[in-house]
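Posted in: Structural Biology > Protein-Ligand Complexes

Title: Requesting predicted complex, magnesium ion in pocket

I'd be grateful if someone could produce the 3D structure tokens for the following input. Sequence and ligand are given below.
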Amino acid sequence: GAADYPAAQPLAESAQADVSRLSNDGDVRIAYMPPATEFNYYIAIGEGIKAEAAANGVEVFMLAPQSGADINGQMGMIQDVITQNVDAIILSTHDEAAAAPLVARAVDQGIAVVIVNSDIAQFPTPVDAVVGYSQRNGTHALADYLVERVGDESEKVGVIEGQPGYHSTERVGGFLDGIEGHDNFEVVASVSGGWNVEGGNTAGMDLLQAHPDITLLFAANDYMIMGAALAAKALGKTDVMLLGNDGDTAALEEIAAGNVTATVNTSPFIMGQIALQVTLDALNGAFAGGFVETPTTVTDKDNVLPVLQNPDALYPKPSKAY
Amino acid sequence: MRAVTKRFPGVVANDAVDLVVKCGEIHGLLGENGSGKSTVIKTLTGVHQPDAGQILRDGTPVSISSPVVARELGVAAVFQEFSLVPSLSVAENIHLGRLPVKAGRVDWQAMRDNARAVLARLRVDIDPDAIVGSLSVASQQLVEIAKAIAANASLFILDEPTAALGQDEIAELHRVVREIKANGAAVLYISHRLDEVAELVDCVTVLKDGKVAARAGETEVNVEAIVGAMVGNVGDHYPKVVATPGETALEVTKLSNGGKVVDVSFAVRRGEVFGLGGVLGSGRTDIARIIFGLDPVVSGEILIHGKKVRLNSPADAIAAGIAYVPENRKFDGLFFNFAGIENMSVAAFGRFTRNGLLDLTAERSLTRELISRLAITPAAEERLVGLLSGGNQQKIVIARWLFARADILLLDEPTQGIDIGAKIGAYNLINELAAEGKSIVLISSDHDELIAMSDRIGIVSNGRLVETKPAAMTSKTDLVRAATAGETRQ
Amino acid sequence: MKAILKSPVLAPLAAWLLVALVTAITTPHFLDAGNLSNLALQVSIVAVVAIGSTVVIIGGGIDLSPGSAIALLTMVFAIMVKFAGIPLPVAIVLVILAGAGLGAINGFLTAYLRIPSFITTVAALSAFRGVAFMFNNGSPVFSVDPNLETIFYGTLFGLPLPLYYLVALYTVAWFAMRYTRLGRSIYAIGGNAAAAMLSGLKVKRLQFLTFLIAGVAAALGAILMAARLNSGSPNYGVGLELSAIAAAVIGGASLVGGRGNIVNTAIGALTIVTVQNGLNLNAVPTSAQNVIIGAIIVIAVGIDMWRVELGGVIGALMPNRKNK
Amino acid sequence: MKAILKSPVLAPLAAWLLVALVTAITTPHFLDAGNLSNLALQVSIVAVVAIGSTVVIIGGGIDLSPGSAIALLTMVFAIMVKFAGIPLPVAIVLVILAGAGLGAINGFLTAYLRIPSFITTVAALSAFRGVAFMFNNGSPVFSVDPNLETIFYGTLFGLPLPLYYLVALYTVAWFAMRYTRLGRSIYAIGGNAAAAMLSGLKVKRLQFLTFLIAGVAAALGAILMAARLNSGSPNYGVGLELSAIAAAVIGGASLVGGRGNIVNTAIGALTIVTVQNGLNLNAVPTSAQNVIIGAIIVIAVGIDMWRVELGGVIGALMPNRKNK
Ligand SMILES: Nc1ncnc2c1ncn2[C@@H]1O[C@H](COP(=O)(O)OP(=O)(O)OP(=O)(O)O)[C@@H](O)[C@H]1O
Ligand SMILES: Nc1ncnc2c1ncn2[C@@H]1O[C@H](COP(=O)(O)OP(=O)(O)OP(=O)(O)O)[C@@H](O)[C@H]1O
Ligand SMILES: [Mg+2]
Ligand SMILES: [Mg+2]
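-- Reply #1 --
Done. Output follows.
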């Protein structure tokens, strides 16, 4: 393939579909089906997929409900897409179990199914490939970075969770695992910010108000920490450390501007490129199945510039040249 | 108005109607229910646009494209359906659409003062700050009239202004209408109380089936002539038939509701029509409400066929064989989402339930009987009741209780707003019911009707039953005098 | 022509046929047998819930809570089956009872405490989902039971099972609204509550019952949802109440109360789902779908509003024998 | 006592004081100056939007679209300022006009095409957000303009700017509803549209205007939202319409129309936000918050419903001169 990706790790045997049943009929049409359009992250993955598809001359289209909560809507869309006999579905869902019967049907019909933005090696029904980063490892690395950076300084931590679910649990869990055993960290409160900027802003304001001694805020995604950053600034708390997860372009720019401290850059655009490449390789018989782990890096002011200086691997594009 | 025609889906409500109303004249517009009177009014006030014909004012054609234009042309109207906003105060309602503004602000004080002045002209005591929705129907009617008077119009239209009023209020209204006439304005007056009309108006135009049946001047202004023009010869207006009374069906003793009603006692026998008379607000409706289980009995007893009953809801009352025809059929009587059939059957599903299911065929044939017996328009079978005339609507509400086979009927202003023909129909119905051995409590503010149609009359004053007399020995003055006496005693 | 425009059943049907026709023309796979049973599956949940919404609307209320009730009930269902080991049939009965209980809360507040139903059910919209998040630490319960899926995805004589449920439930509901005292009484209280009370109907109890029925309908929807997704989640059913109300209203139910028709609600639901299906098959982005669906709701209701007048215009040209 | 219970202004105020008291007792930092201005900031957006909701409700309608309108308008605003380089003051004026335009769509469909406002605005709820997603490929626009933040976070004499906006807007709105013909006419059409029409009011135009006002209020809310988050996003404002309606209703506005009071709406909004703030300060999980807020809406409306009767009971004990 054109885009390089790390070697695949095997999936559990019951989770691996027989890739050899696939073939490339020369007129490839791929559906990209994220759980929602409301999360820009999935748009960024989609842009990566689109860019790579254009480079390879294949057709892709995106179909997703607006709201991530609309699982039922996504299932309807999967049904509708299966009806159309596409060649492959690049799928991300908030509810693997719900999708399982439909995924099984798609696989039966000879449609390649690649799960993207997931690290679940044990998908309930066989799929062709899983592409994504380890949620838990990402935020664990962020905690490691933090432990190293603050040394023995005592830190009061406020946590802004997403809506309860796999992503919030894994990310917060990875972070808490990482600071565990370091007694200078104390988690004073944990509230929900509902994954969005608005919720992050309110949560940040209330947290900093109720616990004026907080020195560090960790949010389970970049949007929430950006909202919290505005709250911190408004309250004059310029020395609170602010940590997120995702590597959203806007968050990277905030890091460059010094408004946010660090994030786990999971490079969604690149993840999308890899997902498409894996899909094509599978159709062409050049991919034998498995989990492809995509790279993550803890990004702060010191290493953010090179990322922003490579706008081709970002979506959305940075708002100015760096 | 010249050759004005107005059509509604399936109906020609006004068919080439000519009408001339002169300044300084009180012009009666009469006709049966559904003959198109209100439609004429609505055309003159810009609510409806005529399909054909012309409206002229002082000889020049005008186009009344909206109520705003009508108002600018000096037309003010009391509509048959209240045009009041229940959530606003009396003063604001009187000035609705013409709020006084001073220095860019609504002038609340001027509004109050002005409202007080207008109400004083009608000699009624209503607080301008009261919320209209909390007033009695009669008071609301007076506010509606005050609203039109306040507009100082040159054409003053009243569409059944007296339907909810008592004798005293009607007298005050007549006085004010004559004042208006004396000031040179034209008045167009609609009412189904023909005695009252005959007393007030200078000339009448009679409509029939949307057409002019008699022009102004063609009919003498007296009740007989008007009735003749409206419906032909009808004979006796109050065809009372005295039935042989049987044993006592309903008896109330020392009934009180903890409020207005105090120590009311009376008994009604089978086959008897017991009238409840009194001035507006004397509490007749309240007495009926207690008997129908709507308001609590605080002290006293209700006996049905000699047995003491506790009625905690209308359902209990209906089960005991009592029926109540409310004074406000629009809000308390009719289901506008139903056609006539469903409106008639709603209080007695048991009559057409077979094996636990509604038998719609039986429902249809049972109600069809009532439709022909009460001479209700056959359209009632299919049409939503909202599209039927007022008289037909009233008959449907009465028919509901015949359908339910109630044997004690509380009729609260049952002939309100229905035409003379329908009234006579209702009276015949009352006679028939009495003859069948049913007991009837008749509440009416039309004293002629009350005296003529009752066997005995109880006079209510301030919530007390002050006197009971045979109807034949009761005079109109008795009704009013007893009421006033009751007041002084308080 | 006039009859068609005025008939309560045919107008929504015509609207749906129009939508289906447009979809069939623009979409190659629309008339595939597979897609048609797909359509039946997709419509099933909203159509079942919409029975409850219609009953409440006819009774003069509104219910904004079924989406949240479904979230809560799928959680309860999934936990009962997966963690408490309760057998599927028993769990189904218990979920229906739980749904009736949720409906009873709305009904009690609305009918007996006289709080407007918009308020009680908005509060319930918030509260039921809140409670759903309290179970299982807010996490969805996945892979409940393999037999569960059969309830939704199973077929009988080649047709999807949900189609049978729909036919059965709609027949019962249509029959009940037309041929029972309860149904007729619900029309009456929605048309004029004061008059209904004066006609001896137990208005409060009837209004309470409409919400109870809506709760049961939501529970049936929850069972289908849990079966479809083989899971329970506090995130399920977001916005479902609006689709269900839209189905009722497209079918001619009036939010003023007293008017509405169960069968038309099914057609209303089908219209919404057909549009979505057509747009999905054409890969129209959700953003545009939202705009189109908004427009269709408005047009469908508009047609219903203007129908009488259109009929009137035509009626004026062709005098009708019936009206004398 | 009776007077307090019967007074339309004092009941919501008492309810709020009760809520604030409970919060102050349970929460150490509630009465901090910092938290009080925090409260002012938090209430500002919903309170501004609620002015529009109240006007629409008084006029007999309902507006479910402001949350989506805000999403769309923050996008429009952010794109104008950041990408089109339109100066901030000009952009603000344009956003207000755009808001009026969105309101005009709702108003046109409701007033002139006579589609029930619940339907038009549910459709708009779906459509406006759909359109919002069409801009900038559905991606939020961040870091719009550093000056933008000042609009929201700036202070004057030590008090947050939004407090001044609120006082100014509420004063104007209160005055307009009480002392202008427009305001009184809106009460009239909401109380009885037919009567208003017969009294020469231009009912359609007035109803149209209520939605236009709501659109402008949504635009002002969008400006505050964009300033608060220095960004525009198609995801903003989800559920805001329900909070705004709840604020109006807690403040005594009746969904039947014709009743409501602008000042009480502010108190209603404050009550909701105070509860949320208190719960957040006590780190109560969102799930429980949803339940509590649901309960508070029901109780607040309940108090308003029962107020008259409570007053009546007390009145029966203490006979009042006015009742003769
Ligand atoms: N808005 C309307 N739509 C359809 N038909 C109507 C409408 N208004 C009136 N009609 C019909 O027009 C005819 C005349 O009605 P109108 O109200 O003018 O009668 P009316 O003489 O005022 O009767 P009443 O004495 O009962 O008040 C009736 O058949 C009525 O059903
Ligand atoms: N729907 C109602 N609910 C509660 N009370 C009512 C209702 N309708 C009437 N009332 C009560 O009835 C009384 C009004 O009686 P009303 O003035 O009607 O006496 P009346 O002698 O029957 O006079 P009318 O000639 O108007 O029938 C008031 O005290 C009012 O409180
Ligand atoms: Mg009339
Ligand atoms: Mg009375």
